[in-house]
Amino acid sequence: MRGVKILERALAALPIMLGVCIVVFLFMRLIPGDPVDIMLGEASNVTQEEIDALRAQFNLDDPIHVQLASYLIRVLKGDLGYSISRSAGVRDLLLEALPATVELALSSILLALIVAVPLGIITAVRHRSAVDRTSMAASFLGISMPAFWLGIVLILVFAVRLKWLPTSGRATYGFVPAHVTGLYVLDSILTGDVLALEDSIRHLVLPSIALGAAPAAVITRVIRSSMLEVMRKDYVTFARAKGVAEWAVILKHVFRNALIPAVTVTGLEIGSLLGGNMVVETIFGWPGMGRLVVDGIFSRDYSLVQGAVMVYGFTFVAVNLIADILYTWLNPKLVIGEKV
Fold this sequence. Notes:
single chain, 340 residues, mainly alpha, two-stranded antiparallel ribbon, globular, disordered C terminus
């Protein structure tokens, strides 16, 4: 039964992905500017015949519906097109940039969970105490601060003024680990390169804090409110009346049953970190998909932007499917797709 529900959810994602492809395709065509003009720049010796030939080469002279049909057919074949701004296949460019984005997103959400889970539990247990009020004020501040502003502040304080951490990039020249997965921290561990590991972590700290601050604040508030609601349930009172230790009541009865809303929010935050890190990657010079998309938008690189957004859309769908599966582990009585 669970397998059927999972399959249904996966199939339901296909129309969503199709809609994402169509919407992005159409909106990219609405952006002012011609990619051919941008490619040619200010060259004055280009003839109209050369311009027309270049447009025909990239199918930009076809009607919009013909371009859309051609693009969807290529996507079904696994061909995401050719980047006119970088003179390379879009799939190859995305595969090259994806590990950097995944590493930054995972480190950010890991940092957020390390802060949010214990803080959410403590604030729920010590409700209305000074710790609770201080934590809620800090979480409100974390939600309010834009990631790009926080990133700039972190660079100015810890990189420029204190010189503790690097300002940009994934690794210092000469400290790039041997390629295994493309994730520098993991590759450093797998190859036993301690110097590369230290260098990779130092480069991850500031962008991870900038991206992880808001998710940490959101998840903290969700865990706190969910636990406060669960703590009023009869089975929690009954467990305490039986003499169960308070730590067991909190962790086994309260925290686990309060995790379902937190899992939902965490899944959404992971998708947001993968798809909403464009500005932060640009600020920190992080060579990931976000920076690639920003460059593609400015150069009107239709295929590059469309391919990247498709990857973002697939990531959102996949993360939410994983969250649905986790619901049945947290509460086997739930049916996949029915969230509480």
